[in-house]
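Appendix B. Raw example, untouched.
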Amino acid sequence: MKGETMKGKYRIMLVVAGLLLALALPVLGCGGDSPSVVAERFVTASADLDCDTLVELMSNDSVQLFGEDRGQAVEACKEQLAALGEGAPNLEVTSFEVTEENIDGDTATVDFKASAKIEGEETEQTQEDTVNLVKEDGKWKVSVG
């Protein structure tokens, strides 16, 4: 049981790191939504291990950290997930609250508090973090670099 709890804590930390680092997975949906909506979709896609959506929501500069184009970035994301193996438990985001949204021209930050739990467990863990976004072609995109 303790090993499962440690895996769960690792998985939650992975979700948060995914927002800021290369493990961030693509979020589907239109990037033209508000910064807060894009941030929530990004967090949800991270928990769902949805590489296609994560890359879709990433800025062009962020995509280039993982490959020459969005297709290569999706493949790199999927390879990183494969390296984690099947031992990672399913994670469900149970709440997402924007605590602050700041927009300054074509850049924005979204501070949030998210709670998540491992499927089949009662215990939730809560993390607070910030998502950085940039506006590209009129759509808000997550900047992970």
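End of appendix B.
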